[in-house]
Amino acid sequence: MIFNLKNSCVLVYLCLCVQYSLGSVSVADSLLHVILNQYHVEKYGLLLETYPVNPDQQVTYLAEGSEQKKGQEVSFLWPYSGMLSGLVALYEKTEDPKYLALLEDRILPGLELYWDQTRTPYSYQSYPLFNGESDRFYDDNDWLAIDFCDLYRLTGRKEYLDRAIALYEYIYSGWDDLLGGGIYWCEQQKTSKNTCSNAPAAVLSLKLYELTGQETYLERAKKTYEWTREWLRDPADKVYWDNINLKKEIGKAKYTYNSGQMIQAGVLLYQATKDPLYLQDARETAAGAYGYFTRVRTTPQGEKLFYSNMPWFNVILLRGLIALYEVDKTDTYIQTMKENVLYAWEYTRDENGLLGNDWTGEKNGKYKWLLDNACMIELYACMSEF
Prior knowledge:
Order of helices and strands: HHEEEHHEEHHEEHHEEHHEEHHEH
Strand content: 5-15%
Largest sheet: 4 strands, antiparallel
Helix content: 40-55%
Shape: globular
Number of strands: 12
Strand order of the largest sheet: 6-7-8-9
Radius of gyration: 20 Å
């Protein structure tokens, strides 16, 4: 490879942060600036999907039957949303106005390029509008609405609450009575109802209940939680399956983020209602997820226990684990993730200072996905507490 001046500056900046405590904001801050430098697309003020650009890139996470865009100039919404989450976390942990300014001056203007007012209810679509109409996903909008709730809580600025409520209305437009309720995954492909669209909708409803005091949000959260628990919780280990289609066939893949959101929803429901059954659910799913998703992996530094899902999924699991920790002080699950990300930071960054999707470093390739790095800003910021 050609080690250019830009890469040299990036690594010098990272070296300045070598004396960090795990998860410190200095690590999150250093990664934030690496991403903003490496992925920046000057033409739009947005970010690349991968760095370096993969000439053969074809995204695999769109809805079945949707056009798989090749050669796109910027990232899809999902990876970009990780930058919003990361900056919200950094601002919350530090109260440093520079993070709020960066969020409002750079990230939110870019996010508006995905905002679709051509279809109602309004929401974010999966690719910027300058490329025309693209699919809209209920789960993409869940994550953003949750961030806007947190932004409102931190700043008191009503426009953030208004945007969260607008997204809530869009998300629940994806609920119908088939299968007794539940929210679909994709507006344009209503073939399945997924944990990833319902569990965060419950979390969102509970955050809106906390912010507004309106009982409607609490009741909607209960209904969404119970529907997801009824249809998609594996009774054997209390870990959540991915989806159920309209033929009542369950997609039994398991991902950390689905269980993580149900853990968080369970804790928030317990805090709102004092019903111990919600807390018991959260504890059972946390224990089940730890048993299901951790694996002993062989590394150059010896055998270590790692969470096996992709980084962003694990960060969403962490949200649930932190919520549970705040109630019962169980930190075993968090400490394992802490050890994982310490290893990733120390041993797996590439020559550009970027992380891959395998914290052991064994399977990391040349092209580093934006989401695999953006999500780590939130993770390292949150880990500063532990």
